[in-house]
């Protein structure tokens, strides 16, 4: 590649005014090349293709220049420092995770307030002294090394855990002795999208081959393998359990049953749908036996009683059911329904205290029930109100369980639960200084473009006037069967404190109403998602909550795609756009890291029909010259190896080229951070400060802080 550094003109803001709203921004001049792809006879220009090279000096210089522009703009917003101070104060309260018990020990996470990473504690009993077991804050000086998946051996002797550096999806696995906290020599590398499943003196995990030099953060992930690691062995002695050289783009994951007799193998081609296999480890020469074909439906192993397996599935049940499979006659015709499909979506099932605990979702809020092992209903778990059970932890043989509950105006609270007595008691109450009576949270239903009824949560100060002048933060996702349910957020609280309205529509593409709702927002029906989001904004305007000049739209990852598509389709409807780590190039997403797995939701440009549809809404390809787009702050990170930052780079460069008014078109590129998981609190506060400063300023808000 030619040296493009000479084309990157140092970027400055005109200094004639201290008010960034009145300034014309001088963006870095980004080199355009003559790169053109041909899809089924259609030429598609890709002039900023060179920004896909995350290792080049040219890309690094572009990132630096863009961040300088963005930093200079944000620095002139007069209340930016006050936002940071308020966010820091809001964040600074103790937060607890849901405890889990294993090998006679209790474990739980706690963050004292603004610790970069939550700390894992251990107790001998619930009332015993809590001791620090693993402090991820000590793994790096800047808090950018985070704890990923973890697992305690069945006898409680060992604790295996994965760490991520700088937010990457790549993990390293290490092992500790539980009783002493001693770090063992075990170190496993190039682990990605893997659990840790113990059996005997070791565990199963999944990994990829080491990427080529320079390709760790962007090259396509292929040929995933499953291994068994024996404690104390070097990684090169790990035993290969399963691979399939015929299908490089399939994923594999295994889990040993609690009794140690069986090994369950999941095979996937995308983010939904799987095949399921079982191997009887008590038979030395046994092979994996297919229990369910892929890849149309989901099959999740829940528990087993000898050869009888409990599976959660949406096979012939779009809202899911629980079935019993006898391994002696595993054909689906012999499956026995234990808990049939209901009107509500069955989100999960757990066996605890020799009972089945089910979590359902009704209109995007949680409901929980306890059943006998034959599926017969015993009772419903009483919850504080409409909200979300964020976790449920229990053991098969023990009556004691734990869960957390939260809502938009109910800070996350941890409960202990007696399964037999159906009694829940507060274990850890939130200590945040927050008065829920000052706020209002409600759910409404509105009509989308094609007549579909869509739910939306709306949160704001109590007694707010519906005069059409309230600033709105409209947040959405709409994809991959993900459900947006009520959760408490100190970051959003800052916006609501200042008179803002927070709105969350449950768009098609999500899982709020089962697989049919999900499929209605995928592939050639993806426009339904954008129509639902646009209709949500139109509802808020019609009902006098707000007006276009007061609406900010936001979303991350697939939600970043949502924002990008809606701001290009309806630039007149929104004042601010906040696409975060978004999928912006719908023609090339499948060429990087794990992007190939998203084609089940999006389709692929390799298919002629799907190509035309993707081109019709791809945010990158639908930016048009001569258009005034909303004030836009694109956010991404240099170590995002889920949705590579090239998506955001190319989108920002194109937006700056085409923006036909003085509304800012900026990009904020975080360093030593990834797609979002494991981001330290310090970086969360920094990012939230900049996003809220940008949003409030461009919505014309005048925040007042005590």
**Strand neighbour order, sheet with most strands:** 32-33-35-34-36-37-38-39
Structural class: alpha+beta
Q: What is the CATH architecture assignment of the domain at 439-698?
A: 3-Layer(aba) Sandwich
Output the radius of gyration.
26 Å
Which parts are unreliable, with pLDDT below 50 for 5 consecutive residues or more? 1-18
Which helices and strands appear, and what pairs or packs with what?
Blueprint: E1 36-39, E2 42-45, H1 57-75, H2 80-91, E3 95-96, E4 100-102, E5 105-111, E6 119-123, E7 131-134, E8 145-152, E9 158-165, E10 171-177, E11 183-191, E12 197-199, E13 202-207, E14 225-230, E15 239-242, E16 251-256, E17 262-268, E18 274-280, E19 289-292, E20 299-305, E21 308-313, E22 321-326, E23 336-339, E24 345-352, E25 355-362, E26 365-371, E27 377-381, E28 388-394, E29 400-407, E30 410-418, E31 423-428, E32 439-447, E33 453-461, E34 472-475, H3 490-497, E35 501-505, H4 515-519, H5 527-542, E36 551-556, H6 558-569, E37 576-580, H7 599-602, H8 608-617, E38 631-637, H9 646-658, E39 665-670, H10 681-698
Parallel strand pairs: 34-35, 34-36, 36-37, 37-38, 38-39
Antiparallel strand pairs: 1-2, 3-5, 4-5, 5-6, 6-7, 8-9, 9-10, 10-11, 12-13, 13-14, 14-15, 16-17, 17-18, 18-19, 20-21, 21-22, 22-23, 24-25, 25-26, 26-27, 28-29, 29-30, 30-31, 32-33, 33-35
């Amino acid at each position: 590649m030619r040296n493009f550094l000479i084309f990157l003109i140092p970027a400055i803001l005109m200094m004639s005014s201290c008010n960034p709203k009145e300034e014309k921004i001088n963006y870095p001049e980004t080199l355009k090349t003559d790169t053109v792809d041909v899809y089924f006879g259609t030429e598609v220009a890709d002039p900023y293709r060179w920004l896909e090279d995350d290792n080049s000096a040219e890309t690094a210089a572009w990132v630096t220049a863009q961040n300088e522009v963005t930093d200079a703009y944000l620095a002139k917003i007069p209340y930016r420092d006050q936002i940071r101070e308020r966010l820091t104060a809001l964040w600074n309260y103790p937060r607890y995770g849901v405890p889990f018990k294993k090998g006679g020990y209790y474990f739980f996470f706690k963050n004292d307030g603004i610790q970069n990473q939550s700390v894992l504690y251990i107790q001998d009993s619930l009332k015993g002294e809590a001791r620090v077991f693993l402090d991820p804050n000590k793994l790096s000086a800047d808090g950018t090394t985070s704890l990923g998946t973890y697992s305690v051996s069945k006898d409680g002797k060992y604790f295996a855990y994965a760490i991520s550096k700088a937010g990457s999806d790549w993990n390293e696995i290490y092992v500790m002795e539980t009783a002493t906290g001693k770090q063992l020599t075990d170190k496993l590398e190039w682990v990605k999208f893997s659990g840790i499943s113990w059996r005997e003196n070791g565990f199963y995990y999944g990994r990829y081959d080491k990427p080529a030099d320079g390709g760790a953060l962007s090259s396509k992930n292929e040929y995933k393998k499953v291994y068994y690691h024996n404690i104390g062995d070097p990684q090169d002695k790990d035993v290969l359990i399963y691979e399939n050289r015929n299908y490089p783009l399939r994923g594999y994951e295994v889990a040993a049953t609690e009794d140690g007799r069986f090994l369950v193998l999941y095979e996937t081609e995308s983010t939904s749908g799987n095949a399921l296999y079982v191997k009887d480890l008590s038979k030395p020469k046994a092979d994996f036996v297919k229990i369910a074909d892929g890849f149309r439906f989901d099959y999740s192993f829940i528990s087993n009683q000898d050869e009888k397996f409990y599976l959660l599935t949406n096979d012939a049940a779009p809202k899911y059911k629980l079935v019993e499979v006898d391994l002696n006659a595993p054909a689906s015709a012999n499956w026995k329904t234990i808990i049939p499909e209901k009107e509500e979506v069955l989100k999960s099932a757990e066996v605890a205290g020799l009972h089945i605990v089910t979590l359902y979702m009704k209109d995007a809020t949680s409901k929980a029930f306890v059943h006998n092992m034959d599926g017969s209903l015993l009772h419903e778990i009483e919850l504080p109100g409409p909200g979300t059970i964020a976790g449920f932890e229990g053991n098969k043989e023990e009556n004691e369980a734990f869960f957390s509950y939260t809502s938009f105006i109910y800070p996350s609270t941890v409960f202990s639960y007696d399964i037999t007595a159906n009694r829940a008691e507060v274990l850890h109450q939130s200590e945040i200084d927050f008065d829920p009576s000052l706020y209002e949270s409600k759910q409404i239903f509105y009509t989308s473009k094609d007549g579909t009824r869509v739910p939306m949560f709306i949160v704001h100060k109590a007694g707010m006037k519906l005069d059409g002048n309230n600033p709105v933060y409209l947040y959405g996702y709409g994809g991959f069967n993900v459900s947006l349910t009520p959760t408490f957020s100190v970051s959003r609280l800052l916006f609501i404190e200042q008179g803002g309205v927070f709105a969350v529509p449950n768009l098609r593409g999500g899982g709020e109403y089962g697989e049919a709702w999900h499929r209605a927002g995928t592939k050639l029906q993806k426009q339904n998602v954008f129509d639902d989001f646009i209709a949500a904004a139109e509802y808020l305007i019609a009902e006098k909550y707000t007006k276009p000049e007061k609406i900010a739209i936001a979303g991350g990852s697939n939600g970043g795609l949502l924002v990008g598509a809606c701001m290009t389709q309806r630039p007149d409807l929104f004042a601010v756009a906040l696409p975060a780590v978004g999928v912006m190039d719908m023609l090339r997403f499948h060429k990087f890291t794990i992007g190939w797995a998203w084609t089940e939701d999006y389709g692929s440009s390799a298919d002629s029909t799907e190509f035309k549809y993707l081109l019709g809404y791809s945010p990158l390809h639908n930016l048009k010259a001569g258009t005034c787009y909303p004030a836009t702050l694109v956010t991404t990170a240099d170590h995002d190896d889920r949705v590579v930052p090239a998506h955001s780079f190319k989108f920002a460069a194109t937006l700056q080229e085409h923006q036909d008014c003085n509304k800012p078109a900026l990009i904020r590129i975080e360093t030593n951070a990834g797609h979002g998981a494991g981001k330290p609190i310090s970086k969360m506060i920094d990012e939230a400060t900049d996003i809220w400063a940008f949003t409030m300023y461009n919505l014309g808000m005048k925040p007042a802080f005590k």
